[in-house]
Amino acid sequence: MHGYELRKELTAKLGAIRAAISYGSLYPTLRRLQAAGWITEADETPATAEEVPALTSRRGRVVYKITAEGKERFAQLIAQAGPETYDDTGFGVHFAFFARTDQATRLRILEGRRRKIEERREGLRDVLGRAAERLDAYTLELQRHGLDACEREVRWLEELIANERSGRAPTVPDTGTAGGRRDNDSPPPPGESRKERP
């Protein structure tokens, strides 16, 4: 991909907030990856008017491809399951690549994330229990909102962990209904094809 395509792909995969990557940080990162030997230039393609970001030139775009060393490095990165993978940013990035991650690593990351969110939830409960009467209505509402978000995430993580332990992939929400599940269209568990499912 060239840089513009890569930025669009990252936004689609990670979401606009996690992938709020400026061109001013994207291209230096691509140069660092290239210097490390993890990506290489493939060829140049002519840029179309709608693909050229504002205030940039229309010269041919450099297309990058991952090298064998880059694939090895990527495999190492997604196999990591340390504390950095439980933080908001690290977790989101690792979760986006769970389809390429082995089950044991997915479970370690999910369980670590659950512990982190449970700690955050207990901290919020503590604040609400000890200082609720000293907080103004808006700050109190913000703390309650944070607590609700933690409780929802813990439930979601517990469901994912249960699915992982049983060998099932997460069910895919039906985009036609508000949050409904469409089990027949969800990816089959590892080792099972769609035809084998009832």
Number of helices: 6
Query: Would you list the SSEs in sequence order as H and E?
Result: HHEEHHHH
The strand order across the widest sheet is 1-2
Residue-averaged pLDDT: 81
The tally of domains stands at: 2
What general outline do the C-alpha atoms trace? globular
Radius of gyration based on Cα positions:
21 Å
| Poorly predicted segments | 178-198
Characterize the main sheet: 2 strands, antiparallel
Strand content: 5-15%
Q: Give the strand tally.
A: 2
What structural class do the secondary elements suggest? Answer: mainly alpha
Binned, the helix content reads 40-55%
Termini gap: 39 Å
Could you explain the architecture of this structure?
- This protein has 198 residues and is mostly helical.
- The protein has two domains: 1-43 and 61-79; 81-169.
- The chain has six helices and two strands.
- Strands 1-2 form a two-stranded antiparallel ribbon.
- α5 (103-131) packs antiparallel against α6.
- Residues 178-198 have low confidence and may be disordered.
Summarize the structure.
The protein is mainly α. The protein is built from 6 helices and 2 strands. It has helices spanning 3-14, 23-35, 68-79, 88-96, 103-131, 137-166; strands at residues 39-45, 61-66.
Give the helices and strands, then pairings.
Layout lengths: L2 H12 L8 H13 L3 E7 L15 E6 L1 H12 L8 H9 L6 H29 L5 H30 L32
Main features:
198 residues; two-stranded antiparallel sheet
